[in-house]
Amino acid sequence: MPIIAIVGRPNVGKSMLFNKLAGRRLSIVEDTPGVTRDRLYAPCEWCGRPFTLIDTGGLEPTANDDMLRFMRAQTTIAIENADVILMICDVRTGVTAADRDIANLLKRSRKEVVLCVNKCDSVGSLPAELYEFYELGLGDPYPVSSLHGHGTGDLLDACFERFPPEEAAQEQSEPVRVTILGKPNVGKSSLLNKLLGQERVIVSDVAGTTRDAVDERLDNEHGSFIFTDTAGIRRKSKVEESIEHYSVLRAVMSIERSDVCLLMLDAREGVTEQDTKIAGLANEAGKPSVIVVNKWDAVEKDDKTMGALTRDIRQDLLFMSYAPVEFVSALTGSRVTRLFEHIGHVYTQNRIRISTGQLNDVLADAVTKTQPPTDKGRRLKIYYMTQASTQPPHFVAFCNDKRLFHFSYKNYIVNQIKQTFGLDGTPIRFTIRERGEKD
Question: How far apart are CA 81 and CA 105, in angstroms?
Answer without folding.
Answer: 15
